[in-house]
Specification:
Elements: H1 3-12, H2 22-29, H3 38-43, E1 53-57, H4 64-72, E2 79-83, H5 87-92, H6 96-106, E3 112-116, H7 124-133, E4 140-144, H8 148-157, E5 162-166, H9 172-175, H10 184-201, H11 205-209, H12 213-232, H13 238-250, H14 258-265, H15 269-281, E6 285-288, E7 304-307, H16 310-317, H17 329-345, E8 350-355, E9 361-367, E10 373-377, H18 389-398, E11 402-407, E12 412-416, E13 419-425, H19 426-431, H20 433-438
Parallel strand pairs: 1-4, 1-5, 2-3, 3-4, 10-11, 11-13
Antiparallel strand pairs: 6-7, 8-9, 9-10, 12-13
Helix pairs in contact: 6-7, 7-8, 10-16, 12-16, 13-16, 14-15
């Protein structure tokens, strides 16, 4: 290991030479008020497994490195943290065998290795596979601001060698005050306040604490378009990618029309499809498939488009007004509900929508492989708990284990054709999505 490289590594990890620097290093990497993340409770035990790569992926600036550092807090200064943004570090990792040998000879014993911004490695998945196969003797914690290369290659290269977790922007539940002793009236007021800000500015950490969240969100969009799209993905038509992202934001909840979008962006249908896949793998845009259920009357091809974070969506459509003042209140609330579903149900269930050739439609179906649950979103004021014909058709067809109507004002429960139907206010739903949808304990 040459002297120049060693100096870089020690500069990145001063606690290796001076263990008393560890608390200061942690303080610099962790916020004063750390917000517990649901994925940490799911992944903390797995991340301690040696001789495996543990991947934490998601959009930029959602707190991936912060979450790993919180996990490392209890391990002490026998941690080596490297960033693949550094050219010398990238050169060092060109040979996995030499890299692992150097770690075992020069830095043993290690409690964990952290590889940050691994998407900058030209062969990230192959490199991680080789490192794991060499049995280094410690867990390898990996972050990436884009999951594109990792997601497309890890399934084959890292099968059985890695765990993979996706970190999204904060869900509403993660931002709620943790005080179970609050009187119900106080709790409901606080939940309502969190909901009102969350649906306007979303869950990106910096936007949450900034006095100018609009500017923060605009900067995140530009960072994706300028750095990820143009530099990392080598997008040939960044102008078309930008227009496509705006089209998706303006049409959330609508069926994807590749032909129309190709015409509006000035590129081919194939290019639109490619760009949508990049947006999906970057965890900005999701294409939601239909819930078929094996019935011939159902549409089975065209997905719907949603954005994962309402703050990003509002920045793209340039409208941060409160929900009551918006003409697109229905689409905004529906997109928010989708984001909360994705952030909370995890890999245990798939979020889909239901639509028949006769026009019956249910906004979302959460399918965990057993009996599904249906969900409708209503932004208009509901004076009484009236269930739509589409909802009744879905209940009659599938006898779901439950059906939810997320709305602005109404709380009610009744049984329809053997299925329990619950009308929930948006803030009640957001406060405990897992319990509402999966019947599970909130995390």
């Amino acid at each position: 290991m040459d002297r120049a490289l060693l100096e870089v590594v020690l500069a990145l990890n001063p606690w290796l030479e001076h263990p008393d620097a560890w608390p200061t290093a942690l303080a610099a990497r962790l916020p004063r008020a750390f917000v517990p993340r649901a994925v940490y409770r799911e992944g903390a035990l797995a991340w301690a497994t040696p001789d495996k790569a543990h991947l934490l992926v998601g959009p930029r600036q959602v707190g991936k490195s912060t979450l790993f550092w919180k996990h490392l807090e209890s391990l002490g200064p026998r941690v080596l943290a490297l960033t693949l943004e550094d050219a010398r570090i990238r050169a060092w990792t060109e040979s996995a065998a030499i890299f692992v040998r150097d770690l075992q000879v020069e830095f043993a014993p290690l409690a964990a290795l952290v590889l940050d911004e691994v998407q900058h490695h030209a062969e990230a998945a192959l490199f991680l596979k080789q490192v794991v196969d060499l049995h280094p003797g410690f867990p390898v914690l990996v972050t990436g601001s884009s999951a594109f290369h990792l997601q497309s290659r890890t399934r084959e290269s890292l099968a059985g060698r890695a765990t993979r977790f996706v970190l999204h922007p904060f869900s509403m539940a993660e931002l709620l005050p943790a005080d179970p002793g609050d009187p119900p009236v106080v709790r409901e007021r606080r939940w309502h306040e969190v909901f009102l800000r969350h649906i306007r500015y979303g869950g990106y950490p910096e936007a949450r604490i900034s006095p100018t969240p609009e500017g923060v969100l605009g900067g995140l969009i530009e960072a994706f378009l300028d750095r990820d799209a143009s530099d990392f993905f080598r997008i040939r038509r960044p102008d078309a990618m930008r227009k496509l992202l705006h089209l998706a934001a303006g049409q959330v909840g609508s069926l994807v029309n590749l032909t129309e979008w190709a015409s509006l962006t000035g590129v081919s249908r194939e290019t639109v499809q490619e760009y949508l896949e990049i947006l999906a793998n970057s965890h900005l845009v999701h294409l939601v498939p239909v819930f078929a259920g094996g019935r011939r009357a159902e549409l089975t091809a065209t997905p719907k488009v949603f954005l994962v974070d309402t703050g990003i969506r509002n920045a793209l459509v340039r409208d941060f007004r409160p929900l009551d003042e918006r003409q697109d209140a229905g689409a905004t609330l529906e997109n928010w509900v989708y984001g909360e579903l994705v952030k909370n149900v995890g890999p245990s269930a798939q979020v889909r929508y239901w639509r028949t050739r006769s026009g019956a439609e249910v906004d979302f179906v959460v399918d965990d492989g057993s009996t599904p649950i249906g969900l409708e979103v209503k932004a208009t004021a509901l004076r009484r708990p009236a269930l739509s014909r589409s909802a009744r058709s879905f209940i009659e067809a599938y006898q779901p284990r439950g059906f939810l109507v997320v709305n602005r004002e109404l709380e009610h429960e009744e049984v329809v054709a053997g299925t329990t139907v619950r009308w929930l206010r948006a803030e009640t739903f957001g406060g405990d999505v897992r319990a509402a949808v999966l019947g599970a304990e909130a995390v």
